[in-house]
# Entry
Amino acid sequence: MSTLSLIVTSFDVGPWITAALDSAARVLRPGDELIVVDDASRDDGPGHIHAFATSGKLAPDVAFRPILLGRNTPGGVGPAANIGLAAARGDIVAFLDGDDWIEAEGFNAARDRFDAELSSRNPADILIANYLEWHEAGGHDRLPADAGRWQGAEALTGREARNRAIALIAVPWRKLYRRAFLETERLRFPEGDFFFEDNPFHWAVIRAAKRILFCDRVICRHRIARPGQTMASRGTELLAFFTHYNTITADLGWRERTLRLQAMRWLVSNMTWHMERLAPAAIGAWVAAAHRAVSGFPQRAWRDNLRPSAETWVAELLDTIRAGDLSKAENRLLAMAMTRQQAHLEHQLNAIRGEIVDLRAAAARPNGKAAVLDERMEAMVASFEALAVNAD
# Structure
């Protein structure tokens, strides 16, 4: 039976890291290893990792390898993930974010399928599975954005499998990798002063893989809408997508037209997401980077393939950017940002108005507690101060 190296990366995820490690303990088997790479967390995460080491939750024959970095690495998870890969010794490699958790039934099913492959003469290089998003603020599950792309995936082979895999969300923690494949192909996450590095890694892995398996089972729940999360980015860190687009397309040959088109479609999809969240201060730099990227799209590909599949407002904005009318594009995006900001402030004001009504009702009661009123008044003042900062 094959062994597995599960690499958990963590940074400032103290409230959730224990749940992640506990979920790992439920699926690891004798001979496996759990590698935790903490990227110099500033919270109590390292303490939770040390506590887990002595908790006895891992089976006796599962190795625990904590790697606690003394200094935070630049960019996102790439350096920490690569450190974990360098330490891995298992036949299979899997990843887990320190604020997520593994779903044991689906994970075990996916692993058993992949494990059966490894003893064959032509083993698969990677297995891609499914996952659910856990909305932290709302307290509920939701399907990922690519849920509609799974139909028929498990039966795909060859180029069709590659094209479907490329189109799925790039995250590494939905996959099982054959470690010998990663080592032979020298596949590692790109490192730099950027985030979202799982995207070029995904493309490099899928392009290098000779056989790809799909398993439509939920192996992980991914936590979203929590404080400090990279996916909440609204600023210039989003420019990393243009860097990653250049990395993805740099070595695509002129014959690889399908992949080039998929790369352009990937960029347009992410740009759509950007435009719906960009902070005003980031708009100028983003528009300039967008112009450099989309002005390089071939006219026929834009006209016949990309533009028709984009939402109308997106197509119009990108037409403006492609034409070089950057001031007009900036003004449109700024208007969108201000509308979002106004709606957010209105939501906060309405919440504070409701708080005032509650305070007045509490003060009118004969037995109203002054300490409780003082505490809530302080919270309300803090909310008003935050509103003032946002308004500026």
